[in-house]
Amino acid sequence: MSDKLGIGVIGVGTIGSVHTDAYAKVEAAEVVALCDIKPDRLEEKGRQHGIETLYKNYHDLLADPSVQAVSVCVPNALHAPISVDAFRAGKDVMLEKPMAMNQQEAMQICQARDAAGKVLQLGMVLRQHANSQVVKDLVSNGHLGEIYHMRVVRVRRRGIPGLGGWFTTKDQSGGGALIDIAVHSFDLALWLSEYWQPTAVSATTYAKFGPLMEDYHYTGMWAGPPDYDGVFDVDDYATGSVRFGRQATMSFEVAWAANTAEESFVELLGDKAGVRIGDSGPVKLTGELDGRLSDTSVQFATQDGFQIEMQRFVEAALGRGEPAATGEQGVVIMKLLDAIYQSSAEAREVTIS
Amino acid sequence: MSDKLGIGVIGVGTIGSVHTDAYAKVEAAEVVALCDIKPDRLEEKGRQHGIETLYKNYHDLLADPSVQAVSVCVPNALHAPISVDAFRAGKDVMLEKPMAMNQQEAMQICQARDAAGKVLQLGMVLRQHANSQVVKDLVSNGHLGEIYHMRVVRVRRRGIPGLGGWFTTKDQSGGGALIDIAVHSFDLALWLSEYWQPTAVSATTYAKFGPLMEDYHYTGMWAGPPDYDGVFDVDDYATGSVRFGRQATMSFEVAWAANTAEESFVELLGDKAGVRIGDSGPVKLTGELDGRLSDTSVQFATQDGFQIEMQRFVEAALGRGEPAATGEQGVVIMKLLDAIYQSSAEAREVTIS
Amino acid sequence: MSDKLGIGVIGVGTIGSVHTDAYAKVEAAEVVALCDIKPDRLEEKGRQHGIETLYKNYHDLLADPSVQAVSVCVPNALHAPISVDAFRAGKDVMLEKPMAMNQQEAMQICQARDAAGKVLQLGMVLRQHANSQVVKDLVSNGHLGEIYHMRVVRVRRRGIPGLGGWFTTKDQSGGGALIDIAVHSFDLALWLSEYWQPTAVSATTYAKFGPLMEDYHYTGMWAGPPDYDGVFDVDDYATGSVRFGRQATMSFEVAWAANTAEESFVELLGDKAGVRIGDSGPVKLTGELDGRLSDTSVQFATQDGFQIEMQRFVEAALGRGEPAATGEQGVVIMKLLDAIYQSSAEAREVTIS
Amino acid sequence: MSDKLGIGVIGVGTIGSVHTDAYAKVEAAEVVALCDIKPDRLEEKGRQHGIETLYKNYHDLLADPSVQAVSVCVPNALHAPISVDAFRAGKDVMLEKPMAMNQQEAMQICQARDAAGKVLQLGMVLRQHANSQVVKDLVSNGHLGEIYHMRVVRVRRRGIPGLGGWFTTKDQSGGGALIDIAVHSFDLALWLSEYWQPTAVSATTYAKFGPLMEDYHYTGMWAGPPDYDGVFDVDDYATGSVRFGRQATMSFEVAWAANTAEESFVELLGDKAGVRIGDSGPVKLTGELDGRLSDTSVQFATQDGFQIEMQRFVEAALGRGEPAATGEQGVVIMKLLDAIYQSSAEAREVTIS
Fold it and tell me: What is the C-alpha separation between B68 and A339, in angstroms, rounded?
């Protein structure tokens, strides 16, 4: 038996493979088992990653004593049940985003973690991108002054994933564009603010493209191809305003599909400077230098976010550090998402306790 | 006495001169008198425009029988009193934006108009720009399909007008960036939607730059220079979400000053196409052609918005047409502004009746 | 013996390898044999593609009963002899461009095809590029109105292939830039027009760079390196005007080498809109929308042109479809090329019957 | 009576005013009289230019002894009659482009000039632009080597002048886009080649936009507005190939209106380098430097082409120099235009003697 932390990856679709590849670059860990309910995919990925222990049922993987920690890379509806079972089996858990279907499930995961005394880390990989780290430093070093407003824009023109599949079926996903991609931006914004607590949200979600499946035209589809006999009962656009007490606000525009140019950024407005973080490119600081308006573009070396994420999870599991993204932070995001969906359903602002 | 409609311009600052120049291009009208409380400016503008009848007191202008209609180009606090007096004197009124300090005043103006049986037109000049007309046609011709969301962005980096003067003194202006520049964008968005009725708004305003007058650095100032002994008690940033029943939403970001790149547009999202109207340049339609994603840039001849505005006012005053922007529409905008300020003050969503 | 259509590839230079790779993606076919006169290259390509049956003499490949169809990827002078032999041997033929050395040879190929009752498809791969398909749809859907003029520009600055080799030796190639690269653009233009018949051409060809081999400076050479002891007796520039009766015209500028910026497009001018197809990027439609000048950029998913080409050839060979480019269309192109060379030689317009 | 050369300007539309302004910058000349058949325009231009002697009939101007030379700035159909009369009256003639309606008229003008022994200069102002002079030097200094092909592109998207007016009425203009704007490019190209003699042309002209006057959409119109009761019986597009013996060729695409992007240049292809002259911007030389491909952008000071043109005409009239553009050169251009129109009408190449 190896000295390394034994990892089991549950769910070996695209993101499960990404985790597996990332662990391969972490000295102190080794992926020892894979699990997937689709036998063909399981065998193919086993060959591809050179891993021989393959489970069709995740309970069998959890019973394997060579597995000390698991990555959970399955559809959203299974995040809570599998994570809870994993904690009960005494494993540390690296859990992909979104944390769960809703706040209640997210809290159950935290409770299971606490009962087991194990480590939970969430898959908020954007934090580990080099530009996010640059902005974190800019904020910490006081360059922005007091931040009072954050703009979240994550808008795709035609980017519904797996139309008609689990992504677009509420029972399996918990929601659409909001729960799938807004979580990344929300977490990034809140992480940069030292996790302000949202107190109210007024929001609206729409479904203008997905429901008319046959009329949906696209140039490429993640997690595709479309299943025209499948279901689309989630949101493809969401917009709203979030309050953080009287301290600050956040506006958001999020789309899987919209008739507009693609745009994706988190922008922080401070009274000394503002900064916009796109998906790539240099960080742009808009402020002043010696009393003159100035724009500063900050360069940096790129880094492998998933590698750092897995490194930090392994360190935490080995008792040498804190998880990169905590369950408590995930609960805040899930609370916010629940409130957004409620606000849209009731067409009124909703208070978040 | 001329056959032409005699116009009196009240207030001959920058915008008053613009009106005067625009009337000069309108065949059926003639500016016969100017009025301003600053004698030097009044004389200078009289010479410049070649107008000999000059009044220091607007009551004297209203008593002049050669004046049949007036343009009101004065600080916001005087919009309602002067307009009401003008109607009582039997004049038609061309009233600059914003309509008034609040909804109540706006309704008083409409009542005075009705009592006098005269014409009121508001200075919503953006509607007369060629690109707005192009978009109006695109909407009317059905190219956008059903519009469900509008994005209003009108963000200046350092654009506070007359820091410390009437623009930044709430008693005289009624508010800051919101009442000064958001009105243009709101009116444009609502006009394009055939004036949907806002039903609720959740918004927040900030004042992060104006209050620290001495620390405010800029490269140019409209209506300047700053008066450091003056007052700044208004907003310089505003953001929020507006509901139009369950039909549609509008988000907005408006700034006189913010640490971000300048950006100004109204964007309409429809289920067939979307369109973004900037301050200049071709209109960009984002949609599909025969089932393929397509971007269409529409060209047009530029036109003189103020000339068209005055032309339409004169036509309406002569009984040959409808005003280009009505008092009722102005009341809707003022209702919305009141609700935004209230929502910010009470840190909660406000319902608009 | 496999159920799949057995393919033999004759000539395994660059383009022969491209065909072999493309067949590998076609379910219903399998490359069973390769042929080349250069033994080293043949063995290397056999290893690379995993094909064990290798022939040095194409007659041996044609005698192989496991070969039902062939791809002909050899110098131009061998196109007709090998294709005719292939048909006589009862094979279907996928023939690279240009069809032959001249119209007479092209017609002999068609006759052999008819005598054998087999399938002939020409290698006009540009038709299978996604942007060509988009433009084909635009034309079919009437967006261009009546097309009256086509501009063909395919101009390289320094792009002579294999200087001194078979490409630049008239006995082996039939000609230079015109027969090598203009054929692609001419076929694309004619295919988009539903194959208008050219009736006259006034053209001139030049050879300004190739003949002075030692003075020819370049940054890269396709099919290189230069053979300074070889021959250059073909054209490196061609220009002219083509008539299609009184209906329409086509102008062309084609260069292997010229002192000008690289440029490559086919442009169609219609009375409703025009469209320019470059080698990549979105398709740009220049026209009107509701009476206003507009530019429309149409997006599309890229596709593998060679895969589609081989798919269509295999389908045709299996009796399930028509060839993607017919011999009759190739004859039209060869007629046009013959006329261009004659027009240049006689310095006068030539009528095409 | 002044020592200066007395100039009479016949026709004071836009171009007549341009001539008058240009003469004002020429020391040795003075405009002493204007002539126009439109009394209002004549008086307005007289005031504008400060010239008191105004004639409604050009015969009266020609009879005025203070007039020694004339500028002829009238519709094309009047070029020959007025120029011939001017020579008979003993005046030097500065004649706007195109020289005449056809070659025959052009030769009559030359004969009248010779009979009178006076000076004729044509209005080929593009030659006097700084970028043309730069290219002339590049050619003279041998930088291009042997020039073998010239490309003329002068394509407007919607640029028909005075739709329905004299420009579009063949009886008054002699033709459309070709005679109006191609003449500039043709003269420039031929002037740079030391006036090669065209020997044959194969060309086609079209009229796709002008005839449907009401459907013609534009953003601005030179010499407008449209006269929908007027005539459009000329070409709005022309394309073709010109031979200069066996030495060289010229291709051209010329449009008043076409569904394509605006583009305007003359390009010379030489065996050492090529050069493209646009309407503005630096001259770009595409060639080699020490055996490496190089692009060279040549800068220059701008200059007032019309001033230089009038300066040269006045110098020639005063016997101190040669005219900047001769009648013989104009005859070559008119021969070429006649042949292009004939080639299009007969749908065949036409030989030019």
Answer: 57
Q: Are C76 and C173 in contact (CB under 8 A)?
A: yes
CA distance C174 to C341: 10
**Distance set, CA C344 to CA C186, C203, D244, D271 (Å):** 18, 5, 13, 19
pLDDT at position B257: 98
DSSP A178: I
Residues B196 and B245: their CA atoms lie apart, in Å, by: 9
Residue C83 bridge partners (DSSP): none
Q: Which residue of B has its CA nearest to D157?
A: B299
- Please indicate if any CB of chain B lies within 8 Å of the CB of A237: yes
Calculate mean pLDDT across residues A313-333.
Answer: 98
Name the pTM for this structure. 0.87
Closest-CA residue of C relative to A219 is C301
Residues in chain D: 353
Which domains are seen in chain A, by residue range? 5-126+306-323 (3.40.50.720), 127-304+334-351 (3.30.360.10)
Q: How far apart are CA D34 and CA D46, in angstroms?
A: 7
Give helix D305-317 / helix D14-23 axis angle, nearest 10°: 70
C297 shares contact with chain A (CB less than 8 Å) = no
Q: Nearest-CA neighbor of D49 among D19, D71, D70?
A: D19
Query: What backbone torsions phi and psi does residue A227 show, to the nearest 5 degrees?
Result: -110, 100
**Contact criterion met (CB below 8 Å) for A75 and A179:** no
- Neighbouring-strand partners of residue A268: A150, A275
Among partner residues C217, C259, C276, which is closest to D274 by beta-carbon distance? C259
Predicted local confidence at residue A101, as pLDDT: 98
Q: Is C301 on the interface with A (CB under 8 A)?
A: yes
Question: Residue A290's pLDDT is what?
Answer: 84
Bridge partners (DSSP) listed for residue A116: none
Q: What is the ipTM of this complex?
A: 0.95
The one-character DSSP state at A69 is: E
Other C-beta atoms lying within 10 Å of the C-beta of residue D24 = 14
Q: Are A249 and B258 in contact (CB under 8 A)?
A: no
The beta-carbon contacts of D290-293 under 8 Å, at least 24 apart in sequence, are D291/C217, D292/C217, D293/C157, D293/C158, D293/C217, D293/C218, D293/C219
DSSP β-bridge partners for residue C298: B294, C283
Residue C128: both structure tokens together: 């299978």
- Hey, how many other C-beta atoms are within 10 angstroms of the C-beta on C265? 16
Task: Provide the 3-class DSSP secondary structure of residue B127.
Answer: helix
Of the candidates B74, B166, B98, B9, the one whose C-alpha atom is nearest the C-alpha of residue B325 is B98
Question: Measured between CB atoms, does A220 come within 8 Å of chain C?
Answer: yes
